[in-house]
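User: Could you check the structure of this?
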Amino acid sequence: MSFAHLHVHTEYSLLDGACFSSLAITDHGVMYGVIDFYRACQKEGVHPVIGCEVYVAPQSRFEKSPYERYYHMILLCENNTGYQNLIKLVSLGFTEGFYNKPRIDDGLLEQYHEGLICLSACLAGEIPQRLLQNDYDGALEKAVYYRDLFGRENFFIELQDHGIEEEQRILPGLARIAAEAGVGMAATNDSHYIEKEDSRTHGILLCIQTGSTVSDENKMEFQTDEFYLKTEDEMRALFGAYPEAIENTQKIADRCQVTFTFGERKLPRFDVPNGENHLDYFRRSCYEGLHRHYGQHPDQALTDRLEYEIGTIAEMGFVDYYLIVNDFVQYAKRHGIPVGPGRGSGAGSLCAYCIGITAIDPIKYNLLFERFLNPERVSMPDFDIDFCKRRRGEVINYVVKKYGHDRVAQIISFGTMAARGAIRDVGRVLGVPYNEVDEIAKMVPFEINITLDKAMHANPKLQKRYDTDPTAKQVIDIARQIEGMPRHATMHAAGVVITDRPVSDYVPLSKNDDNVVTQFTMTTLEELGLLKMDFLGLRNLTVIDDAEKLIRRTHPSYQPEDMRDDDPAVFAMISRGLTEGVFQFESSGSDGQHSHLYRLPPSSRAHSLQASAPAKHPQGDLRLHRLSGAGHADLPRACRLQPRQSGHRAPRHEQKEA
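Assistant: Sure, the predicted structure tokens are below.
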């Protein structure tokens, strides 16, 4: 194999069955899929070439005129220095040069060109554009400029032939420029799909993206169906007059050696007051909280538990993590921003309770620290911190101000094409009447992560419609090919990443409205060892805060800490299912908490956790009790919930079911 595709716009699923020893990823202006592509290549035994097809402003990236054009350029990472420079370029294209597209300019290329191999790009590149305008001297001048900038061995004239007249017309001129400038050539196929037959599906995707239909005369479409992953034989047949352009592709791919390190933590450093040792400061803060909660002479078991947690946290390198979280939690409390008491596995940490991250006593409720941090299961800790939805932004702004705007970014998220949505999109693009598309879509069951294959297995009516209705078959077949694909980029509702150096040193950035966001998702960031925090905006906290302010109008001395946790009236209310607006007890449906709460007998035991398992649980309804007098090391026991002998009635909408 002596040919490699170096100009590929791809989802990493493209690798399935790809018969190439090397393959590049060069998406337009973004690097969303780089890590997934890299991992998928390694899994399939394909050498990954990391790159991007960037947009280049003709003058300055800061010029934003409606008449301003932009050119395309392929940049491939020869090494990790090149990767660092590419993510800087891509990030700055969004944060400084965005105007319709994320644009860079020659000034940025002069600053961040080291370690990059440049290809002159498709018809939209500046050199091809100048040739199309009969400006050979201008095209040669630009080629010489890029040759001198990137280096003679790192700049290549790109040759393409998709059966488009303009491409074929400028091929001799491109070859002449390569000879006169003394640079190599590289033959590429602008690959947007795998097989030639996928051209129709790709056209439908373009229609979905642009809101058009296949019957629109002015719809966006490619001029031919040649934009697929061609074989080496097909490429040699196209470029028989330029055999060196074929050979150079594999030589370029072999030179591109970028490696990623996964699991190596890159935590920011917390500035401890007065330059005190971080561990000493953390330990002192923990003991201050221990004495505050449990008295000046706590039981030895409590001290042992605290020391065990401190030792584990220090050994795993998460002292600064605790200090960072505690810092912004205390900021919120000092400024009257409602903060949740803690939930998830982090509530099991005695250290977190003592320094003030959580407000739930893990000893009182027998919560296990090992569910949060365990040396035998090394993973990033994750405190889920709830803030008042109205004022959550203030806490994020504090973090940005403290660590630097370039070291804090919110996290991207992607909306994907779900099964029902894919059917509706494809049906609209094909011009199928809405009522027919609606009937087909509604046959897909409402289930999480349902696919069309699963839907047809679960619903015989959908399978029958597929087997007997040619239109339904066409819609479903195409929808199958696009379901699960990213539909749009958005911002994660809670995730924020904090780094010890500028975020763009580690990952490429983009923008979501006015917010700077990472181009990698939450999961990828964690794999790369970056610190992800969840700043959750919880409406319930806002409602509670408003309610407390109303209470204090007539009861000025009211403090939520004075509330009893064994109030019989509260348990009676819960057992009647009156939980609208109660966090995590308000869900409805056959698998929800609310549907089963009314079956629970009222209880006033403060140490009892009353819950109901979903109806599908093999053990039915369960109630977990803390063993009376048990220490923190004891585990809860599950007891079969006996039918309640009580006069409480089920909620009206559930009486028939009950």
